[in-house]
User: Fold this.
Amino acid sequence: MQTDDVLEWTCQYCGVENSVWVDLTIEGKQDFVEDCRICCRPNRIIVVRDYDGNVMIEARPIDE
Assistant:
């Protein structure tokens, strides 16, 4: 079983692709804030790992 991975997300403010390290030993939902590497604006990052091991990542504006 893979315990970690680097996932890609797109900044909701400037559209630049970023990456973030994620701990995949956590089942369910991870919800945290990550700053864009270009515009430095905070994005809300939501990572969901289901029981089958599928991982989905979503970036949202912080004020949403």
Observations:
- The longest strand covers residues 28-35.
- The chain has a mean pLDDT of 91.
- The radius of gyration is 12 Å.
- Strands lie at 4-10, 17-23, 28-35, 42-49, 55-61.
